[in-house]
Write a structure and sequence with these properties.
mainly beta, 5-stranded antiparallel beta sheet, 3 helices, about 35% strand, rod-shaped
Length: about 170
């Protein structure tokens, strides 16, 4: 049997296993802004949209990603042995306010409709007293400038940040 003519001296080696397919890319972190105040770029990021945000510097990890480099226009993230280059505009989390609204029980119905829900109408009267003869406005106060209620006149002033509303005592 050892010297049999039908015996083959060639050894058959099993072929090597193909490499495992690469792990799928997890969801990219959400970006809220990029700033550079002298010590290199800081990117305000969270692991997922609506999550807690924190400042991340190049070389630090955020979730499964590592921030390789950043500038005001684009970010380079590393995941395992791959790099992902994205524009900041593509990663900006623009759904922060909407995601909070849709998280509530009424938010599911509001999110399903295509018409925006109008803000609730406030009371047309002075709010909390700030001092003698001065009170703040109620949120969403519908009354126009100059309205007089309970001896107080509504005054709206334009500031660099928008309209400022208060109620002053009528003299």
């Amino acid at each position: 049997m050892l010297f049999s003519k039908d015996r083959n001296s060639q050894v058959i080696v099993d072929p090597p296993k193909p490499p495992d397919p690469p792990k799928p890319l997890p969801p990219l972190p959400a970006v809220y802004g990029v700033m550079n105040i002298g010590d290199g770029p800081t990117v305000m990021m969270s692991e997922k949209s609506g999550g807690r945000q924190r400042g991340v510097h190049p070389g630090e990890k955020i979730g499964e990603f590592k921030l390789v480099s950043a500038n005001s226009d684009e970010l380079v993230l590393a995941f395992e042995n791959r790099t992902v280059k994205k524009k900041v505009d593509e990663l900006i989390d623009r759904g922060g306010v909407e995601s909070v609204v849709s998280a509530g029980p009424a938010g599911a119905a509001a999110g399903a409709s295509s018409t925006p829900v109008p803000p609730p109408v406030g009371k047309a009267e002075p709010g909390v007293k700030l001092g003698d003869g001065l009170a703040n406005c109620q949120p969403n106060d519908p009354s126009p400038d100059g309205t007089i209620v309970n001896g107080m006149r509504k005054v709206v002033r334009q500031t660099p940040f928008g309209a400022a509303c208060s109620w002053e005592a009528v003299k």
